[in-house]
Amino acid sequence: MSSDSEKPSADVKPEEKTSSPPPKKPEEKSVDLPAFEKGISDKIIEKFGDKVEVAFVKQDRVGINVDRDNVHDVAEFIRDELNYDHVESVSGVDYPQDKEIEVVYHIGSYTDSSLASQILVLSTRAQREENPIPGNDATKLPTLRDIFYSVEFHEREVFEMFGVYFEGHPDNRRLLLPEDWADLPPLRKDFAIKGR
Amino acid sequence: MLKDLVTPENANVFIGKLGDILEKAIDKPLGYAINWGRIWSLWPVHIETACCSVEFGAASSPRFDVERFGIIEAFGSLRQCDLVVVQGTITRKMAPRLRLVYDQMPEPKYVIAMGACAITGGLYFDSYNVLPGIDGVIPVDVYVPGCPPRPETLIQGCMLLQEKIKRMKARKFV
Amino acid sequence: MTSELPPGLALQKVDERIMTLNVGPQHPGSGHMRIVVQIDGDYIVACDPDPGYVHRGEEKMAEYRNYILNIPHLERPVIHDSCNVLYPYVLGVEEIVGIEVPERAKYVRVIASELNRCIYTMYWLAIYGIFLGHSTMFMWPAGDRELLIDLMEKMTGARVTHAHFVPGGVRNDLPPNFEDVCLRQVNYFEKRIKEYAAVFYDNPILISRTRDTGVLSRQDAIRLGTTGSVLRASGVDYDLRIKEPYDVYDELDVHTNVMTEGDSYARSRVPWLDMIESCNIIRQALQKMPKSGSVRTKLKPNPKGKGLDSVYKRVESGRGSLGCYIVSDGKTEPYRLKMSVGSFRNLIALPYLLKGEKLGNMPSVYWSLNYWPVEADR
Predict the structure, then answer these.
(1) Cα dihedral: C208, C212, C216, C219 (round 10)
(2) What ipTM, to 2 d.p.?
(3) Across the interface, do B57 and C123 touch by the CB < 8 Å criterion?
């Protein structure tokens, strides 16, 4: 699994692409990266070296790619050293061609006023099964609930929508779907909605 | 004369006939009175199913005031209610609950399907979790189209329902 | 599925003292959700919120519709706050497509967004009143919000579902004479909502019912990741209109209202103070708005992203921070769209607030979370 983490080459590409035509401020074309955001990503790189990969550095947004073995350590470092304190959203993104499901944490901070507008986008990838048995297959990730308490319901939602089981999460029940849902997890790309 | 006609053998038949005649005589006024009572005290169940409940709430606000027409927004038990206003989308999770609510209500009971989602699925026609209309769950009396219907439209729907009840046979439920 | 029980159907051990009570979905004090509470006598020992009764799969459907077709159905989660719920999506699409917004359109958006925040909060307040058995507080806000709905109807043509924001601006320019009407209505509205203090916020019955119930401390509010009025009622000064100003909020003078108690009373008061602040913002925006000019940059018929790209935009809605995460793969449809909504984030606080409360306080605590179930379920 850890060898697959080199895959998100698709994620690195947009960084050059989007930074070349920034939509709002054309004068930033020459200035390559915002300094403050660069500092945040540098701190993470300094600590973890090649275990992490900077996906993008934009205005107020820093994207970090981590493989599943290190996501727990990186999240702990982000909370303890960088003063991020809550998770705003946890989204899954299904990449059937990569045979991976990406789980993206958007992490923000209330306590540190210099980070008020910052969002750290921590993304990690889980192995994707062709025939998923939610909870009983290889699509698993370590939970971040013991680090960021606010992921509790978000991770439950990702579990039912993508079948990503979060190991160590105390409450992996259904949240939004009906109790008798026996189909594929609906937000996977191979789940087709009717008439489409 | 009557004494000759009524024998112990056909007494039952005769009394039955008499009852029919009596019933025909009072059926219309009695039915009218029962229906009149039903029309002006329609109590909707407090079940909200989706976003149309916003306009349902607006309909009982001072500007529209649906209570003028005898639709009293009840905050009581569903066993005292006789109207279900299905306020929008019915998802697969909500459908059994809606049926359960409907089954627990005493007869007579009426259903208004409010909003495009309750009628056909509306905007969510292709969603994986939304039923294409509630006809498969409960029988509907009046459809109120719109997404969401304006409160005036809902009030018109309620008045149509009252019109319908007026023409219903009251004895069916007595 | 294998022979073992799927998660959620496993049997639980039952304590004889503890009674399990289902509140909702058919219940005047629950809205469109179910709350399973376990009570010992009159006190709640555990609470398990069960949302999902209005889960309509918005995110999945968005993957099948192009960026423009997504507009009407993405505002359906909160139809009475439809401008705000669409705002982050529109901002995100603007960044993906790469399109400039005219200055006047930005002001129109701010005005529409603030009006909609008031409309949402008035509805929320009306329901809060009726939850507490205070019928006057249902009738007053429900009647007064019609004033602002009239304004929005004048501006957009629809009562609640406006679909007014489009990538590149707003759909239509303001109608003639709108500024004067808006100013007059907003001034009246502000005067009117200030009267609510006498009947509701200074009411001893309300105070005795909501003071010191469901106290959320500052640390817990941060740790649980709550947002919006719940966060500000617990003493955290965080408002995205100031912290991460979008459109023209950085040119306007915006104040936040922070209370430190963190109880139901503070949580019910902060949105009301926010409405008064919204009136200020609308007046400023009306003054600073360019008097003429374009309100919409025309898009190409089928807007596309530029290759693989992702944006996360957030705005301050009536219920708090509302984020929209869009992953685009260069097609006309979003590859993945996720709405991170304030209601869903505040829901996590419910079990913590209800623990140890009396059952009778449940509606006041639950609705003070500024929770709209349809939005949480999406």
Answers:
(1) 140
(2) 0.84
(3) yes
